[in-house]
Structures are given as structure tokens and as C-alpha cells.
Amino acid sequence: MEILSLQLAINSISVSPDAKLLICGGREILKIFKLENKITEDRSLRIGKPNLNYSTQDLAWHPRQSNYILSAAKNSCIVLWNLDKSGPNKLDLIFKGHSKVVNRVKWQHTNYDVFVSAGQDGMIKLWDKRVADQVILNLQGNAEGARDVSFSPFKENLIAASFDNGQVQIWDLKMPNPLCKIGAHKRNALSIDWHPNYADLLASAGSDKNIKVWNAQSSELVCKVQAPEPVAKVSWVPHENNQIASASHTLDNNLYIWHLNEPSLPHFVYRGHAHPIKDFLWVGDSIITCSEDGNLIRNPRENAYRPHKYLAKHSLAVSPLNVLATYSDSQTPSNPDELLSQADRSLIHHTSKMKIYDLGDYKTEIENLASSYQLKGKNVEQLCKENAAVSRKKAPIWNSVEHLFKSSYSVDYPWINTIILNALQETIDYYSEIGDVQTAACLSAVFNYRGPVREYGDLLRQLNLHHEATKLDIPQPNVEIFLRCKCGKISEDQPCSKCKDISNCAVCNLPVKGLYSWCQGCCHGGHLMHLKNWFSRETLCPAGCGHQCSFENF
Amino acid sequence: MDTEGSISTIKALFIRDPEAREAEFKSFLSMCQALIHSSSDINQHLFRTKYEKTIIRLAVECPLLDIKQASDEFLRINRIAYDPSFVETVSAYIPASEIKPLSGEADFRSDREKSLYMTINQELFFTLGRVTHLDRIMGAFPDYMQKHCEVIKEVLFESGPLQFDWRIYIAYMASAAHKCDYLMSTCEEQGKLYGGKASWFSPQGLSEIPAKIKELSTANLKLAHRPWEFDENDIHALLGNWQISELCHALVILCVFHSLSSIVLGLGICPEYDLVKQNRRASISDDLEEDEDDYDRIAGGYLTYTHYDISAHRRPVRPSDFNWNDQGFNIIEKYLPGIAEKLMNRIRYTFVMTFDTIGGEEGINTANLRRAIWMYTQRVYGLEYDDYDYSNVNEQIKRQTKTYIKEVACAPHRVTRRHIELIDMKLIAEDIIHVNFLICEARLETELIYTTNAVQAFI
Questions:
Q1: Residue A434: exposed, middle, or buried by beta-carbon count in 10 A (0-12, 13-18, 19+)?
Q2: Any idea which architecture A476-554 has in CATH?
């Protein structure tokens, strides 16, 4: 990697047709360098007093005639430099015509005298390099700023241009109106590049962080890549058919190379600049980049950070619906061991590297047990016996727990009693730990120990087993008097202005205006006085859901 | 004690349902009635100081007819006299005939604009309990008004890194930097309405302001008066206690309210009838010096505009290289996406807004004049574009107009009616409002450019 520090911000670079010379231009610098083993300075084109005509936004070296260079100046002029001119000042002609800064200039590759320019005033202008005063052709883009323009490498009269309103327009120079206008990007379309080998492919990039490849004939989107930050310059990588390079103008100082087959992660990342990269090009086996930080960096192509090297080779994920996906990068076929051969039965999908397994629907299991478990009403041993019978193979714990409990009675030493009872609590905690909420909660309900009963209730409700959920004995905090609607908005008037809900009293069935109290367990409620009266006699919920709304402390 | 009308207690103003609102307002008026007829002096005083002015204001400046009529009726019954034209004086420099009325027939360029105007007024009333004089002035350009309201809503009321009461206080500080009483009083009311501490807005309450907010003083003053001096060192100092996203939010609020002060003072917007504070000067008083100190203490210090000296800067900000559209916008968008979008909409719209009229004549392309005003305002703050020929400025804008523009942009509290009278260009009232919008927006863009340029090193 070779870094040449020029101390002054560089906006654009361009290489001579024989690839031996490089010109760098910026606001205060316009120099030509020799590209040998090391990059050395050849000469500076800025002679005499500083002049805004010399400050460059874009450079274009003539593709055939190596003495001509175009620079688009920041003051809206275009300057033609002729290196063969006699005398120290190589400035040949100044082309004035744009009313705002010129963003891009490009030479035509078949007609040696013609070049095109795109300006922030929204105009695309075609010029003849021999004639300074007049424009050959004006293309009115009808948008605020034209950012980039490019001749098609295959069709002589075809031009593509990108604009600040996000459009990419394709023009045939012989016709007065654009052939098509592609709404390519959400905000500015900052850069375009024709594919060097396929006649109709065009890449475009913009402020919305997207790089898109279009078929210019049909205006269809071929593919899309999302870059990390807004992309200011995009270019097809030479000698590769499906690689694109992109650089950003803010917040990101790297150059990314994307493979269109795997657009989610860049293949190569060239680092090293302290400010965003303004321009880049390839010379032979190296890539040269320039930036606002004043540095010119020449990197061999392979000298890049490859994100794929640092990705995990194998990974595993489980979805909330109990589906397992595994990914393995290894090429050798793995030998299935015991576990995997069991798993293969549940394999529902696979590609060469990824496998997807269905781990079974846990819902039916939980449902069956939830409806058949008995949690109260009889003595503990009886409950354990019944639950053991119901669960059979699934939760043999019931049998063990029953014996444990029985044995706690038949021992005379109280300290053994304590150990056994602690063991029970530990069992419940163990099931909580491993995530078997159902067993833990049912155990704790039967033995009246601390356990995840509330969470079990939530789980049942998630599975729409509300009936089972209400059977649980979840201690509710006091029925609170809410001055809020159920949706949470503090409001004293009905209907609630946020959720427009009018609730009916569960006792008298009329709409409740004013104080509405409701049970958090089963969500039924009503007039405060009615509920108070009801619960002075009854314990179950007046709505008939079977929930035991606890009404103590009232 | 709370001497101004506290509209938060008048719940009726915020109820959208007409029947419920009518009932609620009626009960409010009967409470006032009881206060008036009560024998106790305290009650009478309470009515006079807290509610009387608000009812008068509602009788004159309310877009909802039911409230307006009920208030009017109440005042008539109780024989409370008032001068409607005084209450409704929106601007000292723009004649009342040019201000669009709140209800009744209003003259617009199209029906779409008219219905937009009505809708926005209603929304404003339901959110803030009033249609401010500033909004009335903006009614001349309903599309601009809409974009402006979106910016204010997004910056002050939508979800974001900063808590609401801090945001309004920062807006208050920003308005104090230009001694803009009007904005300070509306911020104060909104602050109290949305749960801020009333003590923060009283002169004695300065000690209660959290130290973290006070750290913004340098930023406030520099951005208001000398934005070119605001650089990475200031940001670095602030990042000690502030997180970058909160800081961006705070700085955006400062920028928006600085430029809003330019409009308010440049157009001579008069205080809201029920918000004039007894202890603040409503008219010229001898305590000029004391009041100046007050503003300075709230804003956090003292600084004024000086002429931009380019030789004094090592690395000036060049808008051709670093501008709002390309770089600034992306930087703000990273942390405040909603705000960035609304700001972009408003700035872009203001730049292109035109109805092709000037001085009462139609069909004139005002693009050059508008661009000249924009470029000149930004140049005054040190931003020079490479691709603009600045001799155009002198061609398009004559000397006295230039003076007006510069005063509005840099020292808006010094703008007087005389400045407007002296403008040497044929401009009708609507044009003057348009010019002010251009200056304000150009200024906002300038401050945003300097802010984002300083922040970009820390992203």
C-alpha cells in the first residue's frame, strides 16, 4: 500500500490513456503524477495567481489523445488543458455555460472532439472542444441538479444522466425528449455507470444508500445492493462482470466492492482514509483512491479487508415457533452422529449448507397436560397420583415427588423433614431454571410453594388457553380503583378518547361512566358499588368466567 | 404567583368533540361568573388576573366559533370592555388588512390553500390552546405554514432523545439570545402546559436549571451571533456530559429558534394579549439595562455579531464542499431521522416557493431576486459559494434593502418600522413576509451547516 500525502483535499483523479500518468485535482491542487514503482510528481498545472478556474470538481483525461485534459471547475466553468501547448500555462480553453457548479465531465469515446457535462443547474450540455462559445446540445433534465452523466460504451448516441430528484434519465441524442425516466432513488441519484461488457446494464447509486442495477432498455430493476451510508460514486469493477465498487460522501471513509450474487455483505473493503473517498480508479493490478484528507493511496487489488473471512463458519438459531436452523460452511459432508440422526427425522428443508429442523409443536403437549392436571381440591398425595397417571412418560417427576412427600411424614426427625421440603423447593426451582414452566408451576400450585405460577398463567394465555389460566390460583394485588381506561390513558370521561371503549358492568350490564374497577386476572369489572356488593357474598367473578377475583382488603 | 392566564386549566379548549367542548366551556364560564359575583376580593382578583384576558382573547382570536361566541356573550353580559383591534394586533409592521382572518371569509389563491389554512389553525388550537400571532402571519403562505408546523411538532413534541420540558427550555434560551420576548413568552406557556416547571421561567429560577442545560450557553451564543466560531472544540467540550444524539437534538432546537426569532422580530409580531407579563417591559421603560442582563443571563452570556473576517480562519467552512443538502442532512439524519426530513422539506420548499408576483405585479420570475437574498444572507454569516457571482447581489438588491436584510438576519432586535419604510424596492406586505421567510430559512441552513460541520468529526 502506497500513501502519498498531498496535504490538500483531492476531489477527482483521472489516468492517461497509456496508464503512465495520473492527474489529481481539488480546490487548491491540480497536479500530474508519474505512475511507476512509486508515484512521483511530474508537474503542477496551477501557474500564476490562484484562480477559481483552477479549482476542480471533476477531471477527465481524453481516452485517446493524451495531451487533452478536461476539468470541471467549482465556479461553473469547464477548462480544457492542452499539455502540448507551448509555454508554462497549459490552459487552452474555458467553456462557460452552466449557471451552477459542474458536477461531471466525460469524453465521448468515438468522436474525439465531443464531451458532455452535468451541472447543478439541472442541465446536461454537449460541447465540441474546439469551439468555446457555444454548446452543441442542451438537455433539459427538469430537475434541480444533474449529478452524473455517462455515454453508453456500445451505443454511440445513448447517454444516461442522474439527477437530484432521484431520477435516472436515458437520452438518445438524436431525439428531443428522454427515452425513459427511471425513478431510481428516493432522494438524490448521485452516480451512474454503464456496464463495460453488457450493453444495456446500468448501475446507479444515491443518497438513500441503495445501489441499483437497471436494464436501460426495459427500465426494469435487475438487482439491488444496500450500502451502509449514502453512496456518492459507483463503478463497475473492470474485468469482472458482477462486481461493483462504491464510495460514500459522508460518514464513511471506505471503498466497498460488492459481488452482486451475495449483496448482503461487501466482499472487499479498502480502508485507510481519514475522510470520505471522493474518487477512485483501477490501474493494472492496483486500485488508486483519493480523498478529502489529501491522501492518494495506491493499493494492490488483493490488499483489502475481506468481511467474509471473519464471519462465523457455523451457526445455529431457534425460532419462536420451535424451528431450528443450522448453517455450516464446511465443504466436507458431516458424519451424522446419534443426535443428528434422530434430528434428521424432523428435517424439513435443506440446502447445501443450511438445514432446517422442526422441533415439534409444544403447544399440544402443554395443552393436554394443562387441561388434565389437577391442581387443587384434593389432598396432595391424591393430586400427585392423578397427575402422575395423566402425564405418564412426560413428567415422571410426579411419582418421585409423591413418594418424597409421603416420606416426609413418616420420619420422626424434623431436620430430615426440612431437608425434604427444601428438596421440593429445589425441584421446583430446577424446572424453572431449565425452562419447563408448566411442570414448575403445577408443582408449586399443588404443594403451595413459591413458583412461576404467574408466568405459567401468561404462557397459557399466550396459547389461548384462557380457561385453564383462570383456574390458576394467582394471587392478585388488590383490585385497584383505576381512573384510567383499560388502554392506559388517564381519563375521567367515557368513552375513552384514545381507545373509544365503553365498558359494561359485569353485574348490571349497563355501560359504566365514571369509576370503573376491574380485576387484573380475568379483565372483567364494572361499577364499584356493584362489585363490592357482589363480592360480599360471592367469590367467583360475576361475568361467569370462573376466576376467583380476590377481593380482600377492600 | 402565576399571573398570566393558565390555559391548561381551561380544559374545554382541548376537547375535539363539539358537544363535550361546549358543555365543558359552559361550566368554565359559570365558574368565572361565580368568581365575578362573589363578594370576596380574592376571588375577583383571581378572575381578573387569571381568566379575564384569556376570555377576551378567545372572543377575538379563536378559530372555533362556539367558543368565540360564548366568550363574546360572557363579556357582553358582564359588561367587560375591550378593544378587539388591539387584541388582534398581529404585527406592528404589517397592516391588519393583510392578515388573513381566522374565521369568516378569507381570500386565498386557491380553495386548497384555504382549506389547508383552516385545518392547520384548528390543529394548532387543539394542541396549544391558541393560534399564535406568528401562525397568523404565516397564514399568508399556507404551504409554508404547514411545513413549519411539521418542523416545530417534530422537534418539540415527537419522540426524540431529549425530554419535553428540556426541549422547551432550550427553545426559551435560544429566543433569549436574540432578546425575543414574544417567543420567550410562548415557550413559557407551552412549557407550563406540557408539564415543565414554572419556576424555570421566572428570573429567580435560573439557579434551578440543570447544569447540563447551562452548558449549552456557548453553543447558543456562538450559533446565534458568530456561527463561524463554533467548531469541534465546542462540541468536544459538550460531549463530556451530553450524548451525541441528545446534543444534535439540542443544537437543532437552538438553530430553529434563532432563525424563528429573526422572523418574529423582523416582522414586528406583537405579544399575545393574555401573555403580556406585568413584570416584563411591555413598553419602553427605564430599566433597559436590567432587562438586557436578564436576557443575557437566560441565554447564558453576552455576544454580538461581528463582521466575518475570512483571514482570521484557518479552515473556513466552504459550502461548495460541505453543504446542507449533501453532508449536513445525512449527519442529522443519522440521529434524528424524522427531524432531518422535516427540516429538509421546509428549507427546500422555502427556496423554491414562488407565486411569480412581486410588488403586486404578476407573471414575474423572481428566481434571481430570491437567490440573491438567500446568498446574501448566507454570505453575511461567512458562507460563500464558488459558483455564484456575488455581483448579482448588488444588482438585485439595493442598499436600503440590504440593510434591512442584514439587520433581520444578524440583529433582529434592532429592526424598526423605519427599516421597512426605507426599503427601496416595490414590495407589498405579502412580499415582505416572503422576504422574511427567505432570510430566516437561509439563516437556518447556515447555522445547520456550521453545526453539522462541527459535529461530523464525532460521529
A1: exposed
A2: 2-Layer Sandwich (3.30)
